[in-house]
Write a structure and sequence with these properties.
heterotrimer; A mainly alpha (144); B mainly alpha (479); C mainly alpha (225); A: 144 residues; 74% helix; flat; C: 225 residues; mainly alpha; Four Helix Bundle (Hemerythrin (Met), subunit A); elongated
Chain lengths: 144, 479, 225
């Protein structure tokens, strides 16, 4: 509720100044959201660290700062290699994600582009369905 | 909107895409370790698409899909060339993959997609389709190289090709964006008229430089040739064979479309660039090839030298010069296919005959194939009765006609240097003792195809008129 | 006013994050800075009223491509010191190329050449949809390139699978479904044996031997499952 009010206030201000832009106006709440998110996040960090610095006390020494691994010295780097299968899943995801990016404007203009546009997308989808069948048959979608 | 006629023009592309998809699905059901169904279907697709291309070839130049597609004489001839060469390349590849034991159905499917990319590139009439065709072609090739996963050299070759290819594509795209920014059009014809009417703009030359980098990389002209030796040597021989033959036709078409169809008004600018590229390529290719001991690497440098020659025809800036270049590139594709085919022929499981020394004493092991190799090498060196001589001859004639006598003299000088390393192979075959007398193990089809390939160079060399007449006629219509 | 302020903030953020992306040592941080620069770019696109591109940048690049980047960073186990070797060696020549490129760009490129110098960027009303404009162009005029893009995506699928699939794995996980479906005949095979003569060794019980054979059979069957 408060946000909406703020929105109104800002817009009235803008319209008074005569600098509004119609399209961008629609995105004003998002800008506001980003600003509030930033302010909130930064202030929390600043306050947290600030209070910690003022009120807490830090006396680090070697043993305290060394990584703890069940009492042993750390054996290896904490970062382990991923299996290549994650990569395969990710790349297949990207391909179908891109497909959706194409579907979006298509859905918006479907009534304007006629049958040619409709069938163009059907062919596009058919080509990718072939890819999907191939994936399925090859077992690339199975994790085990 | 889309008319029925437009779809009919695109028929060969639609057909090959449909069949490639079908083969991909069929292949997943195949249990056959030799992938016969996949292989025969792929070959059938090539034959039928070739028939379609010739059958649907238009009387005069036709544009389709908002002028992003062109079908003219050059596109029909080059596409037919791509099919013939790919047919042989698939045949050699099937033999090679069978022998070396990592046959996969996807190899042929990716090959078909690469061919589709070449077709799109050859028929491209807008900057967008040029780029997309090129990407389709390159992506398929990267995957084909890396497909042999046990081989570290193949992975290295794929990696180098991919990284450098991506940079070159970026350069090309940047240049295209400059040209688009100035002319406000993606379509090559409109770009040419816009440049002509609006005159000089430094940005055009700036864009041209980047486009030239992209073209030079794809063709493999010095100083953008670094990938060629490593990729040719590292890739499995059957993939090298494929890369070294058919895509060169597509790269030539790309140069023709971009430079001649789109940027013809900037002829004076790109002519100078091509002269530099050409001389550097001929010098570097021919001189470094002499010191190679690996025949795949030697042929890679010979490719660079041949590209230098090819550019001579392009830079003459006349339709007959372009025809000479087209003749040259078809000739070159046939020769390099045969030469890599010989390496496949001599190899066997766990053994690649990719050192020059492996050709020692070939005349004792197999007089016939030593003779075929002799034809190939003489043809590459440009010795008279063979086809390679005519390619060089026509290109040189055009350069002289265009008034660059000094350039023609330089080209002759470097090709004489180049003759040395071709003839050295012949010396190895006929005058040296073989290290091992292992009999050549190859199937009938392989022997037959390679013989046809070699003899074609001899027969076409004895009567080069027909092929040249085709090249001249299609390009004089276009210009 | 506000629009310009927003533009300057996001372009500053973009430059900063892009710069940090190539200078930070930790590849994971580099990837995160790349995400930040994608975000800033998408904000700038939004200011140009290219809504669809802005959203696609977030959905596809930030949502999907960056995940892939992260996987690759995790997968490669990059040795940082090795990566930095040779930096000083290549710096002079690389720097020279970079400076000459930058100089020529500054000399040649300016907005006037593209006919953009005039300050009259067309602004649209609230009902203007960039997505719509894009869709109409893409599915009528650029239909052929669009289909080629489909073929390229298919090649990407094929390439990704052939290059990274290692085939079905022999994992030792239990499959309860198959365990339930097992019938006794799958596990136990009763073999008819000729009874041995009475004169054969008496301690060797034929029944015991057939049991042994059966139990061996069971183990074999289990392994094959």
């Amino acid at each position: 509720m408060y946000l909406v009010c703020l929105h109104e206030v800002f817009f009235n201000f803008w319209i008074d100044k005569g600098v509004t832009n119609q399209v961008l106006e629609n995105y004003f709440p998002i800008l506001l959201f980003i600003v509030i998110g930033l302010v909130l996040g930064v202030s929390m960090i600043v306050i947290g660290f600030g209070l910690g610095k003022i009120m807490g006390h830090a006396r680090p020494y070697k043993a305290k700062q060394s990584p703890y691994e069940c009492g042993f010295e750390a054996f290896e780097n904490a970062r382990i290699k991923f299996d290549v299968r994650y990569y395969l899943v990710a790349i297949l995801f990207i391909i179908f994600d891109l497909e959706i990016a194409f579907l979006f404007p298509w859905a918006v203009v479907l009534d304007e582009i006629g049958m040619a546009g409709f069938w163009a997308m059907m062919i596009f989808l058919a080509v990718l369905v072939v890819g999907f069948i191939y994936e399925w048959r090859k077992g690339a979608l199975e994790w085990e | 909107m889309i008319s029925k006629a437009e779809i009919l023009i695109l028929m060969p592309e639609i057909f090959i895409l449909t069949l490639a998809c079908l083969i991909l699905i069929v292949d997943t059901f195949s249990q056959d370790p030799l992938r016969r169904v996949t292989y025969y279907l792929s070959q059938l697709t090539l034959v039928l698409t070739a028939v379609l291309v010739i059958g649907f070839s238009p009387e005069q130049t036709v544009y389709a899909f908002g002028n992003s597609f062109i079908s003219d004489g050059m596109s029909v001839v080059l596409k037919t060339g791509v099919f013939v060469i790919s047919f042989f390349a698939f045949l050699y590849s099937h033999e090679y993959l069978k022998e070396h034991g990592w046959l996969k159905g996807e190899y042929f499917v990716l090959g078909l997609f690469a061919i589709l990319g070449m077709m799109i590139l050859i028929s491209a009439y807008s900057l967008l389709t040029v780029y997309l065709g090129l990407e389709l072609l390159s992506l398929s090739l990267y995957a084909m190289i890396a497909m042999h996963r046990e081989s570290t050299t193949a992975s290295e070759a794929a990696m180098k090709f991919f990284v450098l290819g991506a940079i070159a594509s970026g350069m090309l795209l940047y240049g295209m964006s400059m040209i688009y920014g100035v002319t406000g059009s993606l379509e090559l014809g409109t770009i040419a008229t816009n440049i002509e009417s609006n005159g000089d703009n430094p940005l055009l030359v700036f864009g041209l430089v980047f486009i030239m980098v992209g073209i030079a990389f794809k063709l493999g002209a010095v100083p953008f040739h670094m990938w060629i030796p490593d990729v040719y040597q590292g890739s499995p021989t059957c993939v090298t064979l494929f890369i070294a033959s058919a895509p060169k036709l597509a790269a030539f078409a790309m140069a023709m479309r971009l430079l001649v169809d789109g940027l013809q008004p900037l002829l004076n600018d790109w002519q100078g660039m091509l002269i530099i590229l050409s001389i550097l390529s001929m010098a570097t290719g021919n001189i470094i090839a002499i010191s190679q001991t690996n025949i795949k690497r030697m042929l890679a440098y010979s490719t660079i030298a041949h590209v230098g020659f090819l550019l001579l025809g392009l830079l003459s800036g006349t339709p007959s010069g372009y025809a000479g270049s087209m003749f040259y590139i078809i000739t070159y594709a046939l020769m390099s296919m045969g030469a890599f085919g010989m390496i496949i022929l001599l190899g066997r499981k766990g053994f690649e005959a990719d050192e020059l020394a492996h050709f020692k004493g070939l005349s004792e092991r197999s007089p016939w194939f030593a003779f075929i190799m002799l034809i190939l090498m003489f043809s590459m060196a440009g010795v008279p009765p063979f086809l390679g001589f005519w390619g060089k001859w026509f290109v040189l004639k055009e350069v002289v006609d265009a008034g660059f006598v000094w350039l023609a003299a330089t080209a002759v000088f470097f090709s004489i240097i180049g003759a040395y390393y071709y003839i050295r192979v012949i010396k190895f075959m006929y005058f040296d003792k073989a290290d091992s007398m292992t009999a050549i193990k190859a199937s009938k089809q392989m022997r037959f195809a390679l013989s046809v390939n070699g003899l074609a160079l001899l027969i076409l060399g004895l009567m080069p008129g027909a092929l040249l007449a085709i090249c001249v006629s299609v390009l004089s219509i276009a210009a | 006013m506000i629009e310009q302020t927003v533009f300057y903030i996001f372009s500053a953020l973009l430059l900063l994050s892009a710069g940090l992306m190539i200078t930070v040592r930790n590849p994971v941080f580099a990837a995160l800075f790349l995400i930040l620069s994608f975000f800033s770019t998408s904000a700038i696109w939004l200011l140009l009223e290219a809504e669809f591109l802005a959203i696609t940048l977030v959905v596809v690049y930030v949502g999907a491509v960056m995940i892939l980047f992260m996987f690759v960073v995790m997968m490669l186990d990059i040795n940082l010191s090795a990566l930095r070797e040779g930096f000083a060696r290549y710096l002079p020549i690389g720097g020279m190329v970079a400076i000459s490129m930058a100089l020529s760009m500054v000399l040649v490129i300016n907005a006037g050449e593209f006919g953009l110098a005039s300050d009259t960027v067309q602004r649209h009303g609230a009902d203007y949809s960039n997505t719509k404009e894009l869709g109409v162009a893409l599915y009528t005029h650029y239909l052929y390139p669009f289909e080629i893009a489909g073929a390229i995506l298919l090649v990407a699928i094929i390439a990704a699978i052939t290059l990274t699939m290692r085939g079905p794995r022999s994992s030792k996980a239990q499959k309860p479904g198959e365990q339930v479906l097992v019938k006794s005949t799958d596990r136990l095979r009763i073999i008819k044996m000729k009874s041995e003569g009475a004169d054969s060794e008496p301690e060797k019980d034929p029944l015991a031997e057939s049991k042994l054979a059966q139990s061996e059979d069971i183990t074999v069957k289990k392994e094959s499952l």
